[in-house]
């Protein structure tokens, strides 16, 4: 029986959605997005710009689906994120999200960790320098000092019509970083987003690397071999065990809200590969709860 769930990967849907919806795109890209919504029976995204309204909509989602917590990984700015998590601290957790290559990135990260954020989200293909460049080490040093989880998106950025080639698109770019900073828990979302072999190798050699299960994982469609969510769960389960698999949905906009269909698909896959109830609990709750509780934020280092 499911008793507790933390969605570890949610985007707070502020005005970024407007620019995405209004952006000129190739007709093929538009058709692919429409096909994706149809496949999952998702409604057309609704544009809501009011922060307080969105906060309450997401709080209602936690009550409706009995979510212990949701972890917001982006919110169109760190100051917005602070407002969000302070509104319902019993249900909302927030990560800092800014370019690690920007000037004073380490100081910015520490500032927002001290104010109450609990992790750090990076979009690999959006960072201009290699993630293993020594110039970024001050950022990793701050993260290790506060023992926070770092979520790094690798693989295709933006889905159809997005970015497919970049120095930071392969998760193995952080191999040496993970070795040099063993107390940082690095989380690779979307099962590696097309880089399954590389992510499995990274997890095998670096015990501080976790994977998250978030999203529709539609990248499976264009892999050169057949993949399913069930096969992905089985491969990671057999390689690194249930202790380093973390549930997420990649939910964001309304009226969709919490992507219950993603949860259902993943839960079914875990049952079918024979995971025990306590192992499913690790994935849905315990693993991310342990990482968040292990962080030293608000100056309690």
TrEMBL record:
Keywords: Hydrolase, Lyase
Organism: Kosmotoga arenicorallina S304
Top-level taxon of the source organism: Bacteria
Record-linked InterPro entries: ACMSD, Amidohydro-rel, Metal_Hydrolase
Any Pfam family the entry gives: Amidohydro_2
GO biological process: secondary metabolic process
Organism taxonomic ancestry: Bacteria, Thermotogati, Thermotogota, Thermotogae, Kosmotogales
Protein name: Amidohydrolase
SUPFAM superfamilies with a match to the protein in the record: Metallo-dependent hydrolases
Gene Ontology CC: cytoplasm
């Amino acid at each position: 029986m499911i008793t507790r769930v933390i969605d570890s990967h949610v985007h707070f849907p502020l005005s970024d959605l407007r620019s995405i919806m209004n952006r000129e795109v190739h007709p093929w890209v538009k058709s692919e997005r429409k096909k994706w919504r149809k496949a999952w029976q998702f409604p057309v995204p609704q544009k809501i710009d009011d922060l307080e309204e969105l906060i309450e909509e997401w709080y209602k989602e936690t009550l409706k689906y009995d979510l212990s917590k949701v972890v917001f990984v982006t919110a169109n700015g760190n100051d917005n994120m602070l407002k969000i998590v302070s509104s319902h601290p019993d249900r909302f957790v927030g990560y800092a999200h800014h370019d690690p290559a920007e000037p004073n990135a380490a100081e910015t990260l520490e500032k927002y960790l001290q104010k109450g954020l609990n992790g750090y989200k990076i979009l690999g293909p959006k960072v201009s320098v290699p993630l293993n460049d020594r110039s970024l080490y001050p950022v990793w040093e701050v993260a290790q000092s506060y023992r926070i989880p770092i979520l790094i998106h690798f693989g295709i950025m933006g889905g159809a019509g997005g970015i497919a080639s970049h120095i930071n698109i392969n998760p193995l770019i952080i191999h040496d970083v993970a070795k040099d900073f063993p107390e940082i828990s690095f989380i690779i979302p979307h099962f590696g987003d097309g880089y399954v072999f590389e992510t499995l190798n990274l997890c095998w050699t670096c015990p501080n690397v976790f994977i998250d299960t978030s999203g529709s994982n539609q990248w499976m469609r264009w892999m050169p071999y057949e993949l399913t969510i069930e096969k992905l769960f089985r491969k990671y389960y057999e390689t690194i065990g249930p202790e380093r698999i973390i549930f997420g949905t990649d939910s964001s906009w309304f009226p969709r809200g919490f992507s219950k269909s993603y949860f259902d698909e993943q839960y079914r896959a875990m049952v079918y590969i024979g995971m025990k109830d306590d192992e499913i609990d690790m994935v849905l709750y315990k693993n991310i709860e342990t990482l968040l509780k292990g962080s030293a934020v608000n100056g309690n280092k």
